[in-house]
Amino acid sequence: MDRNGLLEGCIVEDWALPEIDLALCDRCGVCVEQCPVGAVEMGDYGPFVARPDDCTYCATCDAICPQGAITCAFEIAWQSRD
Ligand code: SF4
Ligand code: SF4
Prior knowledge:
Elements: E1 6-7, E2 10-11, E3 19-20, H1 30-34, E4 40-43, E5 46-49, H2 60-64, E6 70-71
Antiparallel strand pairs: 1-2, 3-6, 4-5
Bound molecules: iron/sulfur cluster (SF4) (2 copies).
């Protein structure tokens, strides 16, 4: 799939990634463990989306972060090309 291209009749635009607030994060690693596609890694300063192309914006990380440090702020809406 091309993030800025066509997907079976739909146009994918302005793809978003989860936002991680490192000021709230306590480096527990739950988001790294629970991301279903392994898109998150732990870096020197905390978790980050290391493989943004793999992120499906499923919001699992937002839901499971015990510190509320991850936010998936955008709602994905599918729109017909017509
Ligand atoms: S789950 Fe939340 S608190 Fe834990 S490492 Fe990830 S962002 Fe930080
Ligand atoms: S939104 Fe889903 S796929 Fe993307 S980093 Fe979070 S858990 Fe992983």
